Amino acid sequence: MTAFFALATSLLWGLADFGGGLLTRRSPALTVVLVSQGIAAAVLGAVVVATGGWSEAGPRLWFAFAAGLVGPVALLSFYKALALGPMGVVSPLATLSVAVPVGVGLFLGERPGLVQVAGIAVAVTGVVLAGGPQLRGAPVQRRTILLTLIAALGFGTVFALITEASTSVTGLFLALFVQRLTSVTTGGAALYVSVRRGGTALPEGGGFPWASLPALAFVGLADVSANGTYSIAAQHGPVTVAAVLASLYPVVTSLAARGFLSERLRAVQAAGAGLALVGTLLLATG
Fold first, then answer.
1. pLDDT one-digit tens code per residue, 229-246
2. d(CA 31, CA 115)
3. Do 119 and 280 contact (CB within 8 A), yes or no?
4. How far apart are CA 188 and CA 126, in angstroms?
5. Which residues contact 36 (CB under 8 A, 6 or more apart)?
6. What is the pTM of this model?
7. Secondary structure of the chain as H, E, C letters
8. How far apart are CA 267 and CA 265, in angstroms?
9. Can you tell me the distance from the alpha carbon of 202 to that of 172, in angstroms, rounded to the nearest whole number?
């Protein structure tokens, strides 16, 4: 069950990142984050009401609240890093997020077996290579590296927090709703400040991008679903295994770019995808 839900997390996050990347080419990143998360929050609110999730309210929701504060910072840092630097540098560095939940799992006493340790090493190597690490070319700005590391730390922190936010399915719905509501509030305040300082909230040419609404909804719902499947994976098995399998999303993003945009995978990316698959098999069978 851990492997299944963790791999589902990678699929959902990979597709959400692909969609979010496309949308930010036409609209400000902060607007994409705010609208997509707002749609997810509205859907989750309806689910919470339908399932009676309010009865699960308790101290654990503070973990969801914290995840809601950290999430937008991580996303915006990631998008800004992609805008400033080459994806071949940003994407592999962002996968360092896996270090946070794995470290938490080890601190709490988890000790993966030898086969699983090998699987973790192979899978993480594969994910880094699947991002197409750029080993040549112009030096990357320090700001790009810093933003990417902030994003990685933020993503990993959300991984760890959302695992602790609930112990039941209805409680998970409520926790995800609180997380997204916090994200929307934080993102709205940031957008207001940005506009007051001369930033833009709408695409060039003005007008709300109504045609992009279905895509924005997909990104938001895929992202929140990934948080849910990761929480289930981490609660039903070792966090060290769940976190590594869930971090395979760059492979999905690369394959989606190839399938939908006809982008050709570089040799290093193809090799990375293969290693990630091998690592996945080792983790699932270990």
1. 998 988 888 887 888 888
2. 44
3. yes
4. 37
5. 20, 23, 216, 217, 219, 220, 223
6. 0.79
7. CHHHHHHHHHHHHHHHHHHHHHHCCCCCHHHHHHHHHHHHHHHHHHHHHHHCHHHHCCCCHHHHHHHHHHHHHHHHHHHHHHHHCCHHHHHHHHHHHHHHHHHHHHHCCCCCCHHHHHHHHHHHHHHHHHCCCCCCCCCCCHHHHHHHHHHHHHHHHHHHHHHHCCCCHHHHHHHHHHHHHHHHHHHHHHHHHHHHCCCCCCCCCCCCCHHHHHHHHHHHHHHHHHHHHHHHHHHCCCHHHHHHHHCCHHHHHHHHHHHHHCCCCCHHHHHHHHHHHHHHHHHHHC
8. 6
9. 33
Nearest-angstrom CA–CA distance, 171 and 175: 6
Q: Measure the N-to-C terminal CA separation of the chain; round to a whole number of Å.
A: 13
* Cβ within 8 Å of residue 211, ≥6 positions away: none
CA 193 to each of CA 29, 64, 90, 126, 203: distance values in angstroms, whole numbers, following the listed order? 14, 24, 27, 40, 17
As given in the structure block, the two tokens for residue 64 are 């969801």
Q: Is the dihedral of CA 49, 170, 242, 60 positive or negative?
A: positive
- The phi and psi torsions of 238 (rounded to 5 degrees) equal -60, 130
Query: Looking at this protein, which amino acid is placed at residue 106?
Result: L
Name residue 188's amino acid: G
How far is residue 191 from each of residues 33, 35, 172, 206, measured CA to CA in Å?
A: 10, 11, 28, 16
pLDDT value at position 139?
Answer: 52
CA 152 and chain centroid, separation? 9
Place 263 in a pLDDT band, splitting at 50, 70 and 90: low
Alpha-carbon Rg of the chain, whole angstroms?
18
Token pair belonging to 202 = 């709408």
